[in-house]
Design goal:
There is one protein chain. A hairpin with a 4-residue loop joins strand 3 (110-115) and strand 4. This protein has five helices and four strands, in the order E-H-H-E-H-H-H-E-E. It is an alpha+beta fold. The two termini are 22 Å apart. It has a four-stranded antiparallel β-sheet.
Length: 144
């Protein structure tokens, strides 16, 4: 069953924050509620679908169709590309956008991350919701 909608997420920050993995995991043990540190952390979760466990304020945009979600991803990547540290990554944005569109079309989640000039890092994620392909038990952050 394809997702009912998609949630888009954007995180940009220091690489050292991205490298701190403890609060990028939702809980110490499977089946337990997410830790307060995980819920408060704005950085991309280690398992991308776990974005759905974060508060609704983490959602950058909700999109109803895979093509709209792919368009958001491509537009955001193109907007950020001038700051990418690597020229090859800047040139590869159209290819990444095409790949994202193919993945979203079958209901998969999309993640991309880029080193930025200086010490920054950027991630763009689009997550299928209701149900999520990776873990159909994950709740929609906009409901309940």
């Amino acid at each position: 069953m394809p997702p009912a909608h998609f949630h888009a997420y954007h995180w940009q920050g220091e690489r050292r924050v991205f490298d701190q993995e403890a609060d990028r995991r939702p809980a110490a043990a499977p089946g337990t509620p997410p830790s307060p540190g995980f819920l408060a952390n704005p950085c991309t979760p280690l398992r991308i679908s776990d974005w759905l466990l974060r508060p609704s304020g983490a959602v950058a945009r909700t999109l109803g169709a895979p093509d709209a979600a792919a368009e958001w991803f491509g537009r955001e990547a193109a907007r950020a590309a001038p700051a990418f540290a690597d020229a090859h990554e800047r040139a590869d944005v159209p290819g990444r956008a095409r790949s994202a569109a193919l993945t979203l079309a079958w209901g998969g989640d999309v993640h991309a991350g880029w080193y930025l000039r200086g010490t920054g890092y950027l991630t763009l994620d689009v997550i299928g919701c209701s149900p999520n392909h990776t873990d159909p038990r994950l709740p929609c952050p906009l409901r309940g």
